[in-house]
Amino acid sequence: MADKIYHVRSSMTEGWKVTAQVRDHTLVIDQPSGGNEGANPLETFLFSLAGCISTIAKMVAREEKFELRGIEVDVKAVLNPAGLVGKESDDPIGFKSFEVVADIDADLSDEQKQQFLDKTCHRCPIHDNLLRATLVEHRPA
């Protein structure tokens, strides 16, 4: 299967507000100390993980032919703030750990729910990017 390319271009012009036009949607990332017009980048990252798991869960349930009446994904992460503010740290700069808890509304046993969630997370691209190093290149325009 051919690779699929995703592209987002963001813009920051005033304060802490960052916007991006994604398809027909304007996304906003902001800081509480700025205009507070959106979630901050770290909160948005966690939402992306939860959203991806939810979406893949619906796909897996459809393929396995059972009704997924709903899913609530709670993501908590522990952040190392030292690197964020430019201080030296032996810990990773950014999140040190993630906890994902999914409340799965389906007629499945607890064991089946765990297997379903394992399969879902295994297929989630964002979850996979957190587990394995992904090449990221950066350069000025």
From TrEMBL:
Q: Which residues form a coiled coil?
A: none
Q: Which InterPro entries match?
A: KH_dom-like_a/b (IPR015946), OsmC/Ohr_fam (IPR003718), OsmC/Ohr_hydroprdx_reductase (IPR052924), OsmC/Ohrsf (IPR036102)
The highest taxon in the source lineage is Bacteria
**PANTHER family tied to this protein:** HYDROPEROXIDE REDUCTASE
| Protein name, entry field | Uncharacterized OsmC-related protein
Organism of this sequence: Ferrimonas sediminum
